[in-house]
Amino acid sequence: MSDRNKRDVSLAKAFSRSFRGPLKYMLLIILILLAAAAILPAVRAGRSVPDAAGDADTADGLRGAISSAVSETADLAAARTVSEETDITIGCTGAMIMHSPILEAAEQPDGSYDFSSVFRFITPYYSRPDFMTCELEAAVASDPDTYSGHPMFQIPGSLVTAIADSGVDLQFLATNHIYDGRSEGLHFTMDFFEENGLAYTGVRKTPEAPRWYIADIKGIKVGFFNYTLESEGDGTWINALKVSDDDAKLINSFWPEQREPFYQEARITIEELRQAGAQFIIADMHWGMEYMLEPFEYQKEMAQTLCNMGVNALIGGHPHCEEPISVVESTDGSSKMFCIYSVGNAMSNQMEEFMLMDMAGGYTEDGVIITLHLHQSADGSVSLSGVDATPTWMYRSRTEEGTWTYDFCILPLDDVDGLEKSTGLTGIQERAAASYERTMSVIGGGLAEARQAFAVSSEN
To answer: Would you list the domain boundaries of the chain?
Structure first.
């Protein structure tokens, strides 16, 4: 068939589809009008339709016809509801961790803190997706005297707003550092987000509040939920801190050695998200072991179970380094889930020279922006139609030789060769290239698999 004939056939099909439904509606409307015309004379004559002896059966029949026609019209209208085909992108990046040198570098002469310079080169990349997420490994502190880095991360609210201003739309708060400010810090963190109109999930203000968050992104409803692992102890412990019974109800957490309670909550959460209209579900899991390049078997089991439950994508964090990408297929073969076991660090002071005892090789300097491409079909279904990855690198340099004050910034590595020119930073080419190579050595194989599974042909 020639291209012209194909176009003619396509136009004919489109014309037929566009008029088939309206013609049915017109015929049904005509039927209703005719029925009404038959009843109207009796009404005008002052008789109630059922009392008009000769017309009673006719009236009942016409009423039934009208009711049936109206019902059929509504059913047809519902059946003919067609969703607009839409494409959106969702970005997910690694952990934001405020070590003490980053806090010191952000301090201003008036005692306030400005973190915007950390994001000066990455902001265009965080702003590019239609919706952007990250993990925040900290609690917001109300008292500046309690601001601190490792091991108890308590941060100024200005870091939260700087992250949001950089383009991040949703911050995942269920991490192993959410209780670093104890109960007061947990509640102040939620208050700060809400007072500033910022979106979060992973914690909630009351046990009755949802464990999840839904974002309406260009008409597509995407559901998110976020859990953190607990540490060992009677009751609920997070980061070796005992969580009060009341606060434990507000934090999405799980104990890796007893996963069934988590699965029960996850089933309820996923069902609630679907009932609330979520068309695509993303789970953020703060899990695994720090400074490991591979996930545990329990994580693989959890990923498989979440896939079976209907989760569409899984983003992992906590190890402070990247871990592989995997395509998880449901046990019944009906669906596939994108999974990256860890997206690594986005912002931190875990430079290679400090990490020789914990993790040599520089992996803690590396992160990645995962971009999920979602497509909504005409029937309203939403599927993952592509995956992209942009490696990032945490850069640090002394602001003045002989001082302990540093300049920190997150750098995108989509163009390593042109990085020095685009940023104005010098002497970074070799380390930036090494970071890129480390990232691709960890996620490259799985990324290629995911691109094939989800119909992506773009190259990094």
So the answer is: 3-79, 86-453
Contact indicator for 228, 238 with CB cutoff of 8 Å: yes
CATH topology for 86-453 is Purple Acid Phosphatase; chain A, domain 2 (3.60.21)
Phi-psi region of 240 (alpha: psi -120 to 50; beta: other; left: phi over 0): left
Rg, the chain, Cα only: 28
Residues in the chain: 460
Q: How far, CA to CA in Å, does 269 sit from each of 32, 172, 191, 275, 458?
A: 45, 16, 23, 10, 34
Among residues 188, 168, 192, 170, which one has the least CA distance to residue 179? 188
Q: What does the alpha-carbon distance between residue 117 and residue 320 come to, in Å, rounded to a whole number?
A: 22
Q: 454 vs 327, 373, 374, CA distance in Å? A: 9, 9, 10
In single-letter form, the type of residue at position 84 comes to E
Do the Cβ atoms of 382 and 373 come closer than 8 Å? Answer: no
Of the CA atoms within 13 Å of residue 205, those in its CB half-sphere come to: 8
| Whole-structure pTM value | 0.82
Between the two ends of the chain, the Cα-to-Cα distance in Å is 38
Q: How large is the greatest C-alpha to C-alpha distance in the chain, in angstroms?
A: 107
pLDDT tens digits, residue range 290-340? 999 999 999 999 999 999 999 999 999 999 999 999 999 999 999 999 999
Q: Express each pLDDT in 249-294 by its tens digit.
A: 999 999 999 999 999 999 999 999 999 999 999 999 999 999 999 9
Residues with Cβ within 8 Å of 410's Cβ and at least 6 positions away in sequence, in order, are 118, 119, 121, 122, 346, 347, 367, 392, 393, 394, 395
Q: Which two tokens stand for residue 350?
A: 């875990």
Q: Which helix (H) or strand (E) holds 444?
A: helix 429-453
Q: Measured between alpha carbons, how far is 279 from 251 in angstroms, rounded to an integer?
A: 25
Strand partners, 251: 203
What's the rounded Cα separation, in Å, for the pair 385 and 72? 36
H-state helical runs in 116-181: 123-126, 157-165
DSSP one-letter string for 237-280: EETTEEEPHHHHTTB-EEBTTB-HHHHHHHHHHHHHHHHTT-SE
Cα dihedral 28, 29, 30, 34, rounded to 10, equals 100
Residue 344: both structure tokens together: 């690594």
| Lookup: tokens for 52 | 């008009």
pLDDT value of position 394: 98
